[in-house]
Amino acid sequence: MSIDSALLPALQQRKAAHLYRQRYQLESAAGPEVVVDGKACLGFCSNDYLGLANHPEVVVALQKSAAESGVGSGASHLIYGHSREHHALEEELAAFTGRPRALLFSTGYMANMGTIAALADRGDTVLEDRLNHASLLDGGLLSRADFQRYRDNRDLEKRLSKIHSGRKLVVTDGVFSMDGNLADVPALATTCQQHDAWLMVDDAHGFGVLGQNGGGCAEHFGLSPEQLPILVGTLGKGFGTFGAFVAGSEALIETLIQFARPYIFTTALPPAVAAATRTSLRLLQTENWRREKLQQLITRFRSGAQQLGLQLVHSQTPIQPVLLNDDALTVQVGQQLREKGILVGAIRPPTVPKGTGRLRITLSAEHNEQQVDRLLQNLDEILNTSSSRAQRGDPGT
Length: 397
Ligand SMILES: *Cc1c(COP(=O)(O)O)cnc(C)c1O
What we know:
Layout: H1 3-16, E1 33-36, E2 39-44, H2 56-69, H3 77-81, H4 84-97, E3 101-105, H5 108-119, E4 125-129, H6 134-142, E5 146-150, H7 153-161, E6 168-173, H8 185-194, E7 198-202, H9 216-221, E8 230-234, E9 244-248, H10 250-259, H11 261-264, H12 271-286, H13 288-307, E10 319-323, H14 327-339, E11 342-347, E12 358-362, H15 369-383, H16 386-391
Parallel strand pairs: 2-11, 4-5, 4-6, 6-7, 7-8
Antiparallel strand pairs: 1-2, 3-9, 8-9, 10-12, 11-12
């Protein structure tokens, strides 16, 4: 059989199940108003929550650094690719998170895979929230440790009490990426301390957004390095740039430098990206108005959506899913919105559990109230028609 005829059935099956994914071409910078496939659209699907991805100061920092040090870093961190800009950013991230040290990774995916696999091995146990991001789940599988997924803190406690040997690594998203709600990190931290387990939090969607200074869920909940010893952040979301970091103790960071394969065997980020991130870190900490504006938009969206009778998730973050609970309907509504010039994420399995299809709406400090209202109006027009109500099994009011 040829390779193509071997591959085609799975593709056909995906299409039939309304799970086929396709890409559109973005022809403008990230921001509320984008051009996609030649069409001007209003976007509610970016993770650039603070609007820093196209901030003039961040752009200038990148240009200036690239003019001095070029584009490529030329090598991995361990083979002369570790630049002064990388190092300065690591020191600033350590200070920002209140941890002794921080280590840059090229992506969040690699930070998670590398950290979990470096800390757990055969004979150990990795316990993960069942809604964790794919990169955390893949890290658990890669580690070769016994891999378990827990439902909530009580389920975790039950599981931990049955483990009598090896290391126990508990891993969770800080803000769940498809629901927008926060993990109960203080409760998880207490459970971990009681059971001698290590807690790792991936706060990809919390940094920049949560906490007085944008320090994410660690700052929001006031969690010390003892309570939360392994803290992961990504730079491609609230920071608006690219890359990721792990923050923790001296011994943790040295362990990752020695043993995390996705750290060791990859080219270091362009130093200019580190320089741009230093600028975005400064803006993120000092421009509190971005977080305040975001909260105002979140409140406006939620109260408007509730008035329309839409099913929301209990989320106070810029991730505001509208649950449709029907994978085909999710695709259809996503398309209808796009025809009206509005872009949202149409999220289906395997990204979320089967039958929990949803529109993943994300807000940014760069949106304005009129744009949020336009989104609500379009959701109303598309969803509150009798045919879509019937499909949702909703008799209407
Ligand atoms: C986006 C995301 C990642 C991956 O980060 P990248 O830098 O994009 O690879 C990891 N964890 C969570 C929770 C995410 O949402």
